[in-house]
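Anyone have tokens for Mamu class II histocompatibility antigen? Sequence:
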Amino acid sequence: MQAFMLIVAFAEIILGADEHAFQQFIECSFNNEGQVDRLWKYGYDGKDMMHIDLVNQAVVATSEPGERLAEERQSKEYIKRKEDKLKMVCSAVKTVFLLSNNSLSKAVKPDVFLSSGGKKEEEYLKCAVRGFYPNVIRVRWTQTGRPIYYGVSTTRILPHRDGRFQITSYLSLRNISAHGVTCEIEHLSINEKLRIIYEKKSRFLSAFTEPVFLAAVVFLLGFVLSVCLTLSVSWIWEHKRKPHQDDSHDTSADSDTSMNLMNVLQET
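Reply: yep, here.
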């Protein structure tokens, strides 16, 4: 089984009144035997522009806007600088990973909750990843298989008291539809990528995709138990009172019978 380590780095630039984003994506991956792959690519407004092909020593444009940039960077010196930086970053990541004494046997799979929120025109999707170990994870958004970079904000990895970790990623729906959007997770505890596809539901139901559900269940259980207890006490109380009422009725009937007998005797 391979143990993958991934690093994602984004550089976003906002230009004037119109919002635009320029992204750089760096990935390091390796297994227990050593380096497997490394990647450096560029994007603009959520679309791939170009990437560094380390095998063929070339800068490859993947879109029309990226052709000019790729041509400007088409030099051995530029590619060598990027390759050296990738080696340095990936080596540092691997060192930290090994020193942390992490292993596949200790890996804990995360719980993932995908929900929506926000007011109209400020809606967003929220991907909450909870309880994973070790603290090396990759969370990203895709739509119909294509990565989404623009409108994404992710918290730093936060620790749990039990030694596990959590992270939350948000995707703004201001310039994108939620249809076909997927929260994608890569972690040592997962053999392949874990993909959670967003399914539109009511806000009420969406709230129950997170730990709020537990609080609601506890409340409902408490309410049901209290009602059952009240009904049980009432039934027991009524059950205890009923024999006394029957005895009183029987005594009254016996008294009436005695009076009738006395009247009959007096008449004879």
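The radius of gyration is 35 Å.
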